[in-house]
Amino acid sequence: MTGRGATPETILRLFAAQGDKFSARNLATAAHRVAKFGGRNRDVRTDRRVIALADACQRRVREFDPQELSNAAWAFATAGIEAPLLFAAIAGAAPARLGEFNPQNLANTAWAFATAGVEAPLLFAAIAGAAPSRLGDFNPQNLANTTWAFAKAGIEAPVLFAAIADVASSRLDEFIPQQLSNTAWAFAKAGIEAPQLFAAIAGAASSRLGEFKPQELANTAWAFAKAGIDARELFAAIVNAASSRLDEFNPQELSNTAWAFATAGIEAPLLFAAIAGAAPSRLGEFNPQALANTAWAFATAGIEASLLFAAIAGAVPSRLGEFNPQALANTSWAFATAGIEAPQLFVAIAGAASSRLGEFKPLDLANTAWAFAKAGIEAPQLFGAIADAAPSRLGEFNPQDLANTAWAFAKAGIDARELFAAIAGAAPSRLGKFNPQNLANTAWAFATAGIEAPQLFAAIADAAPARLGEFNPQNLANTAWAFAKAGIEAPQLFAAIAGAASSRLGEFNPQNLANTTWAFATASIEAPQLFAAIAGTAPSRLDEFKPQDLSNTAWAFAKAGIEAPQIFGAIADAAPSRLGEFNPQELANTAWAFATAGIDARELFAAIAGVAPLRLGEFNPQNLANTAWAFATAGIEAPQLFAAIADAALSRLGEFNPQDLSNTAWAFATAGIEAPLLFAAIAGAAPSRLGEFNPQALANTAWAFATAGIEASLLFEAIAGAVPSQLGEFSPQNLANTAWAFVTAGIEAPQLFAEIAGAVSSRLGGFNPQDLSNTAWAFVTAGIDAPQLFAAIADAAPSRLGEFSPQNLANTAWAFTKADIDAPHLFAAIADAAPSRLGEFSPQNLANTAWAFAKAGIEAPQLFAAIAGAASSRLAEFKPHELANMTWAFVTAGIDAPQLFAAIADAAPSRLGEFDPQTLANTAWAFARAGIEARELFDAIALAARSWLGEFDPQEVAKTAWAFATAGIEAPHLFDAMATAARSRLGDFNSQDLANTAWAFACVDWRKDSEFFAELARVVVTDLDALDDRGLSQFHLTSLHFHLEWPDRSFPLSSHQQMLLSAYQRRNPTPSHFQRDVATALDRVGWTPHIFEHVTEEGLSLDMARPDAKRAVEVDGPYHYLKRTRVENGSTRFKSRLLRRLGWNVVHVPFFEWGALDGKREQDSYLRAKLFANA
């Protein structure tokens, strides 16, 4: 076994043959040699003889001497062989005999148990007790292996580590690089403070790094970083040693090196750049921790490495299932910290993390929430899951975890009241351990989230003053801001902040300065010395101020009543050229501040007056009121600005009376000004005061909220309750506006509508056109059945249509059609009134009017012609659904409008990205139904539809297929995609959808898979009765296609073939004059005998046929072709293909060729030539 030729195989063969004769020493030696010669060879590890050897060793452990015990453990650990019984036996036998172990035995035994991952606390404790007194006999490898083993096994042995530190420090010159690296790694991993040892290792290693392998370099850097040892010279030397050798580093070593330098805070731009260059091409080799740590390191070090981050973002999502919680959290934290946009990565992490939060440590939960908030990623499910998981575990959260979690939910705008309540309960008793940033962030978070937590704020107010010397400027500013924002009275805290801040203003950035002044002003805290200091500091730095900082500073000084002409003058000079960057509140507050302070700044006011009118839709009520107030107070003339906001708002909404509230809401809605805060305030203020509202105020308030698109269900419910008792006093406009408002806002109020219907019917004479139109629109949109009301409107409206606006006309027609009300006199009157005014119609008005007349089946050719003319030149203004509705209407009404369709075909392709599935399908359907040739449009629709098919409903799939087939457009990729999309959803298709789909696929000669046709048939067979003759005919033609293409297969509808055939034959057209002309000519040229109107046994009709010779003549009229072309439509091509497959020789006589012939002679010559050529 010890000879030169020994191999694992020879040793195991010998053991298998004579193992029962082996002594204990023989067994230990055999195991040692197998491991030494075979290493971690897989074949060795799985060899049954090795397992038998382990069993034999275990049975005779008691006979092993120390060397043999150590060797046996070393052998099986080295080979990576699981031998739990043997390790347990050695762990039991060794402690009592450790006095006999030499240093190598002790070290190797510990190493073996750590390497094998075997828990043996009593053995490790015994070694820890036995080793210290004998460390003088340990060689460097023994020392290094022992520390490595205890650290790897996670065994606490401070006395042993201290002793090794003392011994090793003076002998490091004997250590090889691996021993130096492992020793440092072990002390760092075990968390043992050994500054002298680390200093000695740093000194010893620095000059020898050229001998270090990549793993040793990486582990050394990792150890010093982990231990928090300041060893800049060592790190600098590692940079020099590693940078040129990174191609030798494996992924773990690259990751650990980056992690170490980032953790240690060592600037090494060249090293990071080299890692950033080396890593991307090798990310496939990185394990999850290496990926996460690399990203973390670059983010922590503040190194810009966009290509590396992009590569990591691409590599991570497919492997998230392998990531542990810390890796998930660190990856998201890294991308957020580095400011890298990676929405797909964050979405993937959100999905992976949500279901595994039970495995997350508090730090992981906090960091994940922080990262998503910092990155601005909306992840409601993830935040919801964290909000559910965290409260019960807050006792495990450290102060930073608590603060970061609160900050994250506030920053992300997540409503998590239970979580905030739990944090508010957990934090106060632990504030002594909060650092200044934790205190400031916690206060900021609760204030930002609008969470009332008086006890928490009181505790922070008590804890903070004594520690303000540790607060940085941002902490000071944020704390003040939070208390002011939350409306918490804390005079002592504010006084302490004022004192602390005044002497440190040179460290404050502009936002800190502005927020501090804003906070003191908002909290109404008198701090003249602080304001004076800020007034002295700020003017020279205004070029660094953002718009919000400028505005808040001016607002605060004015609000606090502080005279500061120097700072106001500087802001007045700085602001005008930057007003384009100001948001509405900043514009309003700046104007308000200068007016309040009595500062003459005409150029600034003129600039605001120029900028503001274009942006009033963004102003909230206070902005509007303050802006108006400011210009009036300052005596600045700004007629355009005042015209825009006149009568819209007052400076103090709490003082608005009901009419003021109603008129303000009405004015903003009428002007189309977006003012969400104003409407929210009115919605909050109005319900409790509706008893004071008169009918017009009630109606106008409802109308305003509906027009502005403001959701206010509680307000609408209150109005619905208040209106009925006052209906007798409502004017016609009030009635119409109230009904219109409830429908537009999507509020169901059936009792209210019943009351309004009764009131309206008897009073229509007083209604103006808008009232009539809005009332009809409202009732039909709400789905309220009110036949008497509609009959009354139909009688009242025609004589007054001259007063109707275009929208009134369109909406009235739309409403009567939608309600399915028969009102021919009204439609006729609209058809007469509308054409001369179409230039005033919006695209929606034009589309809705056409739709209404087509849907109602009203013939109005002059109106349609006028609409076609008006629409053609304005198609760029049409929305996609308006284009689709327009084409649908003209097709449904049977109106030929070639110029309109041509214009739509030109305009639509470049805008298909705006089309939804229904619009795409309807547009294709309309062009096919109209028989319009529009190849480019269909090609564009085919391309667009393929990317949307997952969102198509069954009818849209069927419509699209039908359209392409009818238009004769070959789109194989689209049909392949539609087949795939349809298959999984056939149960959702109705019978006609199935028929249209089957026919379309057969029509385009789709032959990819017979089973698709069979599936369609199997689904429809249970509901054939739902099909009319058209649908049955479509399946008849499908069955023909199926039998011709797959004759060896049975079509599932074969047993219903006679029913399908009968339906198809009932749809055969009657002979045309053109057909009879050609038949007569055939007689003249002697093509006899022939049968006029022959039907094949398959049910296909032939105009003239000679069945015995299977020859036929088909007369192709205009309906066989796309309009104004000589291109056959899909149906014609389909029938021709079926006839050819059935063996028929068909001569086609197109109408455009026949019509060009002059007299019988030319006709006869034409037919002879055709027949001869086809013979």
From TrEMBL:
One of its GO terms (molecular function) is RNA binding. InterPro entries: DUF1601, FAST_kinase, RAP, RESC6_dom. GO terms for cellular component: mitochondrial matrix; ribonucleoprotein granule. One of its GO terms (biological process) is regulation of mitochondrial mRNA stability. Residues 1111-1169 form the RAP domain. PANTHER family: FAST LEU-RICH DOMAIN-CONTAINING, LD45607P. This is RAP domain-containing protein. The lineage of its organism: Eukaryota, Sar, Stramenopiles, Ochrophyta, Pelagophyceae.
